[in-house]
């Protein structure tokens, strides 16, 4: 079997197209199972020799460097456990290869030489902000969606709920990433993560509070209660309409990370599913976004996770008007 035909069959297994999809009423059931089920190790694909499997995935990773073609690499990770482990071993972090592959790539450091270019599409009617991969939109709405945010106004603040899907903002969903919380004046933005950052520690507090926080943490039900950064703006006469001085403190990244030769804390394990979270998503149109702002397991006091050492502080240049 050639490599091209093998990849075509893998894609059919992922999308649920084939003989089963021709049975009419069973097609939807097959597609739902294909998205949420990873093939067991007893499948015929798990019996491939490790050397052959390594060579296949290496060729796929080297040939498919851009989206949406890079979705084939994600499909390889959903075949079975042996395929998934080898794919995770071959695929490098964005800092090393400059490419985004899995959902965990969005939380890993990017390349130091050149930034990863993205653009934001705003929908004022639904208060939704969509972050797409690339510098300019592609034709046919085949852009790769990275993150989506939904603006939720409250009495004293405003929350921007962040998700991996444009139509799912529920805290109980695996698509849930975190939120950005602003104060009443819009001068302070607190970044909350649904999962504790890499190599983080909890500030000193009472033993009862520590036990309470750890019991509430669940990979299946994110609590969005881990503060990883704070962004503040200085007020001026024109408030948000004029240039403002900005300060950004990242508690999850030490200041030594920006020095040459140092390593940035990089998470390697992902709480997100390979099957659902980073599959190709073309258009954001469709069903009305669902959002669940209430969660019984959210502690009253957020936990601020910090890494050992001084946190990284970023300051913008002196703001001025464009001539």
TrEMBL record:
Gene3D superfamilies per record? 1.20.1280.50, Tubby Protein, Chain A
Q: What is this protein called?
A: Tubby-like F-box protein 5
Q: What is the lineage of its organism?
A: Eukaryota, Viridiplantae, Streptophyta, Embryophyta, Tracheophyta
Concerning PANTHER family, the annotation shows: TUBBY-LIKE F-BOX PROTEIN 2, TUBBY-RELATED
Q: What protein family does this chain belong to?
A: Belongs to the TUB family.
A Pfam family: F-box-like
> Which stretches make up the Tubby C-terminal domain?
106-323
- Region entry Disordered, spans: 269-297
Q: Which residues does the UniProt record annotate as the domain F-box?
A: 45-88
What CDD domains does the record tag this protein with? Answer: F-box_AtTLP-like
């Amino acid at each position: 079997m050639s490599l091209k035909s093998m990849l075509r069959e893998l894609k059919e297994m992922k999308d649920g197209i084939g003989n089963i999809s021709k049975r009419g009423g069973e097609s939807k059931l097959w597609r739902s199972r294909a998205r949420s089920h990873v093939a067991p190790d007893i499948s015929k694909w798990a019996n491939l020799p490790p050397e052959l499997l390594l060579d296949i995935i290496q060729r796929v990773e080297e040939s498919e460097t851009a989206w949406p073609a890079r979705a084939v690499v994600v499909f390889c990770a959903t075949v079975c456990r042996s395929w998934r482990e080898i794919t995770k071993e071959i695929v490098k972090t964005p800092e090393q290869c400059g490419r985004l592959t899995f959902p965990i790539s969005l939380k890993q450091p990017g390349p130091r030489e050149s930034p990863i270019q993205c653009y934001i599409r705003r929908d004022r009617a639904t208060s939704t902000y969509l972050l797409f991969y690339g510098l300019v939109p592609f034709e046919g709405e085949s852009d790769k969606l990275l993150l989506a945010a939904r603006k939720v106004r409250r009495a004293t603040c405003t929350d921007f709920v962040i998700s991996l899907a444009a139509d799912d903002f529920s805290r109980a969903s695996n698509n849930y990433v975190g939120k950005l919380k602003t104060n009443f004046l819009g001068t302070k933005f607190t970044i909350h993560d649904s999962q504790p950052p890499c190599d983080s520690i909890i500030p000193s507090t009472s033993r009862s509070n520590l036990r309470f926080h750890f019991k509430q943490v669940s990979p299946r039900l994110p609590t969005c209660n881990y503060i990883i950064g704070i962004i503040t703006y200085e007020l001026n006469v024109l408030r948000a309409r004029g240039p403002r001085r900005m300060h950004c403190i990242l508690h999850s990244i030490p200041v030594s990370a920006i020095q040459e030769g140092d390593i940035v804390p990089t998470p390697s394990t992902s709480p997100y599913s390979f099957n659902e979270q980073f599959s190709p998503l073309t258009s954001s149109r469709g069903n009305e976004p669902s959002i669940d702002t209430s969660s019984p397991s959210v502690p009253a006091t957020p936990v601020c996770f910090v890494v050992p050492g001084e946190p990284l502080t970023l300051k913008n240049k002196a703001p001025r008007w464009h001539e």
